[in-house]
Description:
The chain is an alpha+beta fold. The chain contains three helices and eight strands; from the N terminus they run E-H-E-H-E-E-E-E-E-E-H.
Amino acid sequence: xxxxxxxxxxxxxxxxxxxxxxxxxxxxxKRSPMKRLSRGDKIIYYSSKKTFGKPEPYQKFxxxxxxxxxxxxxxxxxxxxxxxxxxxxxxxxxxTPIAPLIDSLTxxxxxxxxxxxxxxxxxxxxKQDYETIYKNMRA
Length: 139
């Protein structure tokens, strides 16, 4: 099966928690994004905010990794919240601002409204865009 490339959107603090646990979840733990992933797929996190629920902007790619399991699973959280997750092997990277990359990312069709795509919370990107982001996060 051909590997695919994805972007998930979450605040920097939530991404850091996922990296620590070696997991990914998207769109507030919904099933459908994690169901679309396959072993070997790559996932990049973009964080528009530094802290969930706070207005401080961040606008950086904050983690990148590879799916290492074959199916999604239910995570255990407090109360009745049961997010759907995947196991991820995260790569050693550094947070990378999106601004210098906007013109080179093909998934951003209207460069004046570059933030539009991120409102979906989870979406597939072309391999060349993955490689551009990866190269900059590893530099």
